[in-house]
C-alpha cells in the first residue's frame, strides 16, 4: 500500500507540476528589415580608390617634370659656363696688340711707308647731293603738309 500511495503521490505531483509548469514562450522573431543596398559604401570606396590613383599619377607626373627641369637647369648652367669661356676667349682675341703681333710675326705684315701711300680724289659725278630737291624738302619749304597738298589737288 505504501507503494501505491507513493505512486499516486508521484502522479499527483507530476500532474500539478505539469499544470503549474510555465510554458516557455519563445519570443517571436522581430521581422528582419530588408537588407540595405550596399551601393553607397561601394560607390564611396570606388571613388576613394579612383581619387588615390589620380593623386598618385599626378605625383608621378610632377616628379618626372621635376627631373626634366633639373636636367634642363644642369644643361643651362653648362652652356652658361661655355658661353662665359667663349666670351673670355673672344675678348682676348679682339685685343689689337695681339692682332698686331700675329700680323707682324706670323703673316709678315708691316705698316706701309710714306712712299707706299697714295691719295685718290673722287670726281664730282660721285657726289651724293641731289640736284633736285625732294618732295619732303618742298613741303617743308612751302609750309603745307602732305594732306593739305592732297586736298588741294582733289578740290580745285
Keywords:
156 residues, mainly alpha, 5 helices, 66% helix, elongated
| Count of extended strands | 0
Tell me the radius of gyration: 58 Å
Alpha carbon gap, first and last residue: 168 Å
State mean pLDDT (0 to 100 scale).
Answer: 81
Low-confidence stretches: none
Q: Could you say which overall geometry the principal axes of the C-alpha atoms support?
A: elongated
H/E element sequence: HHHHH
Q: Count up the helices.
A: 5
Can you put this structure into words, describing what you see?
The protein is mainly α. It has a domain at 41-109. The protein contains 5 helices and no strands. It has helices at residues 2-20, 39-93, 96-107, 135-142, 146-154. It is elongated, with a radius of gyration of 58 Å.
Topology, pairings included?
Layout: H1 2-20, H2 39-93, H3 96-107, H4 135-142, H5 146-154
Amino acid at each position: 500500500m505504501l507503494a501505491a500511495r507513493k505512486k499516486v503521490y508521484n502522479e499527483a505531483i507530476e500532474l500539478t507540476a505539469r499544470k503549474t509548469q510555465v510554458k516557455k514562450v519563445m519570443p517571436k522573431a522581430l521581422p528582419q528589415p530588408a537588407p540595405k543596398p550596399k551601393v553607397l559604401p561601394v560607390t564611396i570606396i570606388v571613388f576613394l580608390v579612383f581619387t588615390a590613383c589620380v593623386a598618385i599619377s599626378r605625383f608621378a607626373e610632377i616628379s618626372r617634370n621635376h627631373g626634366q627641369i633639373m636636367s634642363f637647369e644642369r644643361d643651362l648652367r653648362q652652356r652658361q659656363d661655355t658661353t662665359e669661356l667663349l666670351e673670355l676667349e673672344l675678348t682676348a682675341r679682339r685685343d689689337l696688340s695681339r692682332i698686331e703681333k700675329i700680323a707682324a710675326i706670323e703673316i709678315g705684315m708691316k705698316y706701309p711707308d710714306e712712299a707706299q701711300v697714295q691719295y685718290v680724289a673722287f670726281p664730282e659725278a660721285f657726289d651724293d647731293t641731289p640736284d633736285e630737291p625732294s618732295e619732303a624738302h618742298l613741303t617743308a619749304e612751302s609750309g603745307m603738309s602732305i594732306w593739305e597738298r592732297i586736298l588741294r589737288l582733289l578740290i580745285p
